[in-house]
Amino acid sequence: MIPYSRQDISQEDIDAVVDVLKSDFLTQGPLVPLFENKVKSHVESKYAVAVNSSTSALHIACLSLNLGPGDWLWTSPITFVASANCGLFCGANVDFVDIDPRTFNICPQALEEKLIAAEKEGTLPKILVAVHLCGQSCEMDSLYSLCQKYDVKIIEDASHAIGGKYKQQFIGNCRFSDITVFSFHPVKIITTGEGGMAVTNDEDLAKKMSLLRSHGITRDEHLMTHASDGPWYYQQIELGFNYRMTDIQAALGVSQMQRLDEFVSKRNMLASRYDRLLSKLPIITPWRHPDNYSAMHLYVIRLKLNGKNKTHLDVFKSLRKAGLMVNVHYIPIHTQPYYQRNGFAGVHFKEAERYYQEAISLPIFNRLTYSQQDKVIKLLHQVLE
Ligand SMILES: *Cc1c(COP(=O)(O)O)cnc(C)c1O
């Protein structure tokens, strides 16, 4: 069986985790700040806040930007549900902007048209969550100038995209956004088991997110309403959560960061091999925008089965039957029953729905061997020819 994605854990990674297990601190020790420093210096952001998942990072990112009831958050319909749910967690309304069929990311023209309409209706969003699907950055210069014009904050959901670049610079430097979030789930580029991080260049946002990650509690006397009662004293000054990352997880993250560039270049090598060896099939291989160096989290092909007496489901089932754990990323969020019950019945996003009819994610990960990849390629030829 060949999965679509899989972690790569080395002996060094294991040793790093074992060292923490033998140390004084399993959580809230020195490894979390070390991991934060590694990530922020790699992506060239000023601040980093490690948390227990990217979902948590999205939640505290929205709260720190003061998203609340009556506000709107917009994102892509083609993403994991967490990119939209973070708006609902804050009591805000969520809506979607259709995708560009070539990049699978939010379409700048669709965004512009929707902003113009929303301005007339007085329903402009407070936040746009720009999802870098498959590891390829959105067209951030266009999204940024539109969001500047309409006073919309940007969160980059870079859960797929650590190690990728946009216009020669690492995704996460927040040049075109307020906050960027990463995921370290085992299927993503690097892993901490579960884990996430929010990076930003804004000191106030970083402070707010740090507070929210741990119950809204501070030990910093400058933030307290009166002088400290004594060495034991802390104050709860916001309503926060327990979204902390452990030192066990951070140790794995620090160790994995050493191989980030290697992981991303291997994924790009595998992707160009797919591009070349699948070029004769009735599919569209993923187009890469010239502004991008994709982290290549996913390699999504779109089936073009016109005239073939086979469906997307037939092809998917044949691949699964042959031991390929292909997948579909993603089911358009507005078609999920929860969203259907909450305002999206009868609402359509044409390009997103068309994408869903055609998309299949092929295996791509650091430990995928060329002979395994050849097997995937051979199978696709058998199924599609
Ligand atoms: C995986 C993922 C998330 C959620 O990440 P977790 O760390 O599992 O919470 C959010 N957005 C996107 C686009 C993802 O792929």
Walkthrough of the structure:
- With 385 residues, this protein is α/β, with parallel strands linked by helices.
- It has two domains: 2-257, 3-Layer(aba) Sandwich (Aspartate Aminotransferase, domain 2), CATH 3.40.640.10; 260-384, Aspartate Aminotransferase, domain 1 (Alpha-Beta Complex), CATH 3.90.1150.
- It has helices at residues 11-21, 31-43, 54-64, 82-89, 108-121, 140-149, 203-213, 247-257, 260-277, 312-321, 337-344, 350-358, 370-384; strands at residues 2-3, 47-51, 72-75, 93-96, 127-131, 153-157, 165-166, 169-170, 179-183, 196-200, 217-218, 235-236, 283-284, 292-293, 299-303, 324-325, 359-362.
- Strand 3, helix 4 and strand 4 (93-96) form a beta-alpha-beta unit.
- The longest helix has 18 residues, at 260-277.
- The protein binds pyridoxal-5'-phosphate.
Structural key phrases:
single chain; 385 residues; alpha/beta; Aspartate Aminotransferase, domain 2; Aspartate Aminotransferase, domain 1; 2 domains; seven-stranded mixed β-sheet; three-stranded antiparallel β-sheet; 13 helices; 17 strands; 15% strand; binds pyridoxal-5'-phosphate
